[in-house]
């Protein structure tokens, strides 16, 4: 798992999420093999009571999916959902390269790391804790809303977007919000009034405190993005100075750009009604500024 995290945090690498997923799944498999071995559970595949062999003649051990499915699996539901999700993504990436999926999966990868550290401490003792062996990853950039939207969604490969949607649709809202399934953190630039805290990159705040409430507002603002009906988008565009823009124009432009395509991140279907996000409004304004007119 340390190798997985170091690989993801390494500067200059491409398909970091892919490398992390493959390596972390190996780590989880070994962890559960160690647990089952200690508990006296035979984690080898058998057929007719006979241990199955690999082509090279070695015993055939359970893969991660089988480890998770066993009745004595010690992991919580949220952790299992996280690992099943990453396994589904691995099936999509193991035989073909992808591009720019790191940010789209980051919350799941972060949860995977924390879950592993918690599991190894719970199952084998705090002596195996990893938090002191891994540094905080430093960043070169900050992102505003439009920048982040351009990173997450527009270039997400269709098969990855479809795999993510299919998995999420099978979970309840509570399961999707479970921090053991995906772990999200808000980074807020802060000027500290105390010299001792002025250089802290990470600060822990007490639940229920004014600081915690402020962070919660940031998280809700990020997660619950404003949604607009098509008519509301048209009104916003007119208010921005494009009075001639009509609902018909909006429909044409959305079709031309295939804006409802999964993974583009321009909107969402809620109760059989399509809603647009703010970044779609920004895209419409961008195209109109470029001189777009109906064919």
Describe this structure in words.
The chain has 12 helices and 4 strands, in the order ααββαααααααααββα. It has helices at 2-9, 16-38, 64-69, 77-93, 102-124, 145-151, 158-169, 173-177, 210-223, 230-239, 247-256, 278-289; strands at residues 46-47, 50-51, 267-270, 273-276. It has a two-stranded antiparallel sheet with strand order 1-2. A hairpin with a 2-residue loop joins β1 and β2 (50-51). It is elongated and about 75 Å long. It starts with a helix and ends in a 6-residue tail after the last helix. 20% of the residues are buried. The model is unreliable at 143-154 (pLDDT under 50).
Mean pLDDT: 81
- Overall geometric form: elongated
Number of domains: 3
Strand order of the largest sheet: 1-2
Annotation, overall tally of beta strands: 4
Low-pLDDT regions: 143-154
Structural class: mainly alpha
Largest sheet: 2 strands, antiparallel
* Proportion in helices: 40-55%
Q: Give the N-terminus to C-terminus distance in angstroms.
A: 54 Å
Number of discrete helical segments: 12
Give the amount of beta strand, in percent: under 5%
User: Helices and strands, in N-to-C order?
Assistant: HHEEHHHHHHHHHEEH
Radius of gyration: 23 Å
Produce the secondary structure layout:
Blueprint: H1 2-9, H2 16-38, E1 46-47, E2 50-51, H3 64-69, H4 77-93, H5 102-124, H6 145-151, H7 158-169, H8 173-177, H9 210-223, H10 230-239, H11 247-256, E3 267-270, E4 273-276, H12 278-289
Antiparallel strand pairs: 1-2, 3-4
Transmembrane segments: 13-36
Keywords: Membrane, Transmembrane, Transmembrane helix
InterPro entries: DUF3644
């Amino acid at each position: 798992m340390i190798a997985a995290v170091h690989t993801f945090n390494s500067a200059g690498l491409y398909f970091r999420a892919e490398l992390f997923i493959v390596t972390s799944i190996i780590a989880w498999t070994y962890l559960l093999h160690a647990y089952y071995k200690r508990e006296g559970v035979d984690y080898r595949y058998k057929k007719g009571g006979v241990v199955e062999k690999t082509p090279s003649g070695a015993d055939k051990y359970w893969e991660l999916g089988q480890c998770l499915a066993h009745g004595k699996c010690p992991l919580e539901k949220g952790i299992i959902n996280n690992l099943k999700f990453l396994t589904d993504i691995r099936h999509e990436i193991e035989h073909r390269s992808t591009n720019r999926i790191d940010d789209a999966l980051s919350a799941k990868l972060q949860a995977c790391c924390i879950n592993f550290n918690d599991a190894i401490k719970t199952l084998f003792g705090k002596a195996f804790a990893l938090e002191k062996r891994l540094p905080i990853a430093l960043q070169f950039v900050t992102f505003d809303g439009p920048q982040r939207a351009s990173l997450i969604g527009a270039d997400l490969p269709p098969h990855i977007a479809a795999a993510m949607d299919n998995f999420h649709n099978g979970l309840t809202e509570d399961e999707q919000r479970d921090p053991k399934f995906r772990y999200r953190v808000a980074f807020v630039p802060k000027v500290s009034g105390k010299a001792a805290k002025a250089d802290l990159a990470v600060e822990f705040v007490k639940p229920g405190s004014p600081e915690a409430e402020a962070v919660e507002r940031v998280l809700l603002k990020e997660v619950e993005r404003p949604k607009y009906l098509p008519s509301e988008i048209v009104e916003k565009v007119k208010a921005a100075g494009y009075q001639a823009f009509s609902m018909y124009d909006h429909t044409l432009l959305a079709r031309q750009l295939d804006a409802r395509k999964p993974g583009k991140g321009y909107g969402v279907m809620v109760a059989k009604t399509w809603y647009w996000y703010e970044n779609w409004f920004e895209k419409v304004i961008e195209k109109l500024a470029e001189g777009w007119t109906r064919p």
